[in-house]
Amino acid sequence: MLKTTTALLLLIVLAACETASTSTPSNPGPQPPESSTMRLGNFSVSLAVKDIAASRAFYEKLGFSAVGGDQAQNWLVMKNGPTKIGLFQGMFEKNILTFNPGWDQEGSPVADFDDVRDLQARFMEAGLAPAPAADPESDGPAHFILADPDGNTLLFDQHVDRPGKK
After folding, report:
1. Model pLDDT, residue 164
2. Largest separation between any pair of C-alpha atoms in the chain
3. Per-residue confidence (pLDDT) for residue 125, from 0 to 100
4. Phi, psi (5° rounding) for residue 126?
5. Which of 1, 117, 138, 146 could make an SS bond with 154 (beta carbons 3.0 to 4.6 A apart)?
6. How many whole angstroms separate alpha carbon 48 and alpha carbon 112?
7. 49 close to 64: Cβ distance less than 8 angstroms
8. Beta carbons within 8 Å of 54's beta carbon, 6+ residues apart
C-alpha cells in the first residue's frame, strides 16, 4: 500500500512539474527579483516544542547534539552534520524557517553577504509584504518576517551589522 501511494504521489508531482513547465499563466502577478541568486544566509528550522527536555532527548536519539542555546531558558540549537534545528518552548506558536544573513553554516560571521534590508527591498519589489519589516535606514542587526501562501513563517534574522559598516 505504501509503495502504491508513494508511486501515485510521484506521478502527480511529475505531472504537475510538466504542466507547470509547459503552461504560461495569463496573469503571472508580481515577478521574482531580477537575480535568482540571493544569499539568504545560514538556514535552520525553528521548531515550536511543548517540552524542550523531551524534544532534546528525541533529537539526540536521531544523532543531533546541542551546540547552542540554553535549555533553562527553553531554547536550544541542535546539530547533526550540516543539519541544524532550533528547539523553542513557549516562544512562538508555529514552526519557522529561519535564514541568518551574515552567518555561515557554523554560525560564524562572514564578510560578504546580502544584508537583510537589501533582501527585504528585493522581496518588496517582487510584491511580497514583510510583517514586521526591518527598518531600511538601520545598520545593525535586524529582521523581517514573510508568510508563504500556506501561512508558513519565514524569518530573516541578521545578527551582525550591515556589510562594510565599521
Report:
1. 81
2. 61
3. 96
4. -85, 0
5. 146
6. 31
7. no
8. none
Q: How far apart are CA 33 and CA 147, in angstroms?
A: 17
Q: What pLDDT does 32 receive? A: 52
What sections of the chain are H helices per DSSP? 2-22, 52-61, 116-125
Q: Cell triple for residue 33?
A: 527579483
The whole-angstrom separation of Cα 95 and Cα 150 is 13
Which contiguous run of DSSP H or E holds residue 135?
A: none
DSSP output for 38-86: ----EEEEEEEES-HHHHHHHHHHTT-EEEEEEGGGTEEEEEETTEEEE
pLDDT along the chain (166 residues), means of 10: 38 37 47 68 95 98 96 97 95 95 90 95 96 95 95 95 81
Rounded distance, CA 23 to CA 63, Å? 43
Strand order in the sheet with 96-100: 65-70, 75-80, 83-89, 42-49, 96-100, 153-158, 142-147
Pairing state between β 75-80 and 83-89: antiparallel
Q: Residue type for 164, please?
A: G
Owner of C-alpha cell 543531533: 64
Give the CA-trace dihedral at 32, 37, 42, 44, to 10 degrees: 40
